[in-house]
Amino acid sequence: MTRKTRQSEIELSWEGAMAASKRKSAPLWISALLLLMVGTASAFADDYPSRPIKIVVPFAAGGGNDLLARLLGQELSASLHQPVIIENRPGAGTQIGAEAVAHAVPDGYTLLSTSLTTYALNPNLYKKLPYDPARDFAPVALTGRFELLLVANPSFPAASLADLLALARAKPNAISFASSGPASPHQMAMELLLHRAGVEMVHIAYKGAAPAVQDVIAGHVPIMMLDVATGREPIKSGLLKTLASASPARFPDFPELPTIAELGFPGYEASAWQGIVAPAKTPAAIIDKLNAQIGAALAKPAMQQKLRTAGIEPLTSSPAGFAEYMRSETAKWREVIQSAKISLD
After folding, report:
1. Which end of the chain is more exposed for a tag (fewer CB within 10 A), N or C?
2. What does pTM read for this prediction?
């Protein structure tokens, strides 16, 4: 149905309501007004998008979040018949990019590639943010999860998670673990394990996953939680050994590696997830249209293969399901952050 045809129907509906109002009571005016509003919103969604869409990535180009956004942007550009532009706006722990989208016009043409950091960690790490995750964004869809593995230097005496925890209990704070940075998903995944196990270790923060894993390989720090994309090759070449997976199910690349949940910590799951949100008050019809197109893109076998090769597990959800997932993640990490007394203020 064309926009012109839709507009004609709206005009006819309005004229009919006007005629009926001369014969019937005032409530019919309300019904006619509601009909007009619904019809106008539907016509707007039918016309969307009529110009390029921008997805803001609050990370530097070249990382996993950037890759997922770009692959998704390519698919959406083809299905929506409009260019999808990726704009990298890194800085301040994703706050710069998130603030820009929070204050954008809610018309569906500016979206945010949100993440665990933006939505669930930052509100618990900073006393004040330039955006409110719950108030300023409309969830569109969960898109992917960056799987994490617990790895160690091959010479480290622990051969299993049980061995590691036994060593930690015998000598509190005698074992150190690396991460890609303060309050990074890598650190948070380990903090969650320590919280659940009731043990203490020393955190060593690096400026990125690459230097962190190099020091684990060199034996300067014995263990760390590491994303699959960064760890796959060192693991396969024997430079690292694996102790467990932080994912809710065994990762296809390492089917023999048990999950932490299997090893005595039911419900344990830690990952660096990513999703798409729009500014609050974006029309629901546009949110639903984007959700459907994102789901279709992520269902394509070629797309799934590209993501899994990069260590990303493709995920899909409804807008409501994504909202509930983000609320649960915020609550989970609040408990861990408070227990570990982590603050970035």
Report:
1. C
2. 0.81
